[in-house]
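User: structure tokens for this one?
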Amino acid sequence: MRFLLQNFFLSLIIIIIATIPAKAHPWGGLVIDATGNIYFTFICPMVDDDHHYACVWKLNSVNELEEIIKSTSSPSDFILARDAGRMIFAAERSGNGPGYRNTLWQINGTSAKHLIPPARDQNAFHIQAYTIRNKKIYFAKENEVFARDSLGIVTQLQLGADLPRIDLMKWSPAGELYIFAQGTIYILEEGNKVRELVRGLKKTKPKNLPFSGANIFFDMAIDENRNVYLAYFGNREVIKVSPDGKASTFLVSEGRWSPHGVDVFNGKIYVLESTIGRTNPLKSWESTEIIPRVRKVNEQGQVSVLFTYESKN
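Assistant:
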């Protein structure tokens, strides 16, 4: 569950509220640290009549769930990221635009500290999309990319192409910056040369659209072999793109589940999904719950469920 665009977030809430009684909203993000702990973003509390707050949750190796960060205001969102050493970061957007606050947290186990304290200056840090490498924070504003160093100095990357509005960014293990923008994957290579890997990933009319207005890609991950994995919430699937640009469906979220987080760890793919409660699909208006689950796909393609939130109601 994840913040994508400044004004899109509020629109998404309105769409969901109009569709179901719950006031919760889906966003995206799942990352895994060096010891295998899973961090993901979700509403908090997970089951409540008034889901306006966001949290970063930690799922440890024995499936114990811990609340790591809770937003202090509403509306709010978190976007998770990790660097090559699997240090975990959480960018928080809180308040209403255009004067919302951007914050960047660094997470170490069960504690978190500010890397960038809450600020309204979107030129210093913006969470439309961001990624981290060698202690530099790369963030997008519209179709431009900026780098912020450890001293807080921000410079713009002079891209060798005119891109559309940027949705997602990730550094690959090979040190290439992958940019996902409006259904196209671009790779930033040496000399800031931009190479197009594949286009047309976003469908105009997805067959498995969860609800009107939800045609969104929420997360991206790249493995050691340069395969790209995209959590396509808008068509209830994870798309895999090979190094030569061939796209295929890697995982389908069956029933009422939809993916909004993905990461790679030790050759396995981990996916965060959510659904609206557990009522009869023919009476979905009776449900007021949005619950998460985490699934794993091993090297042989076998799928297992690691965690599903069990409602206490």
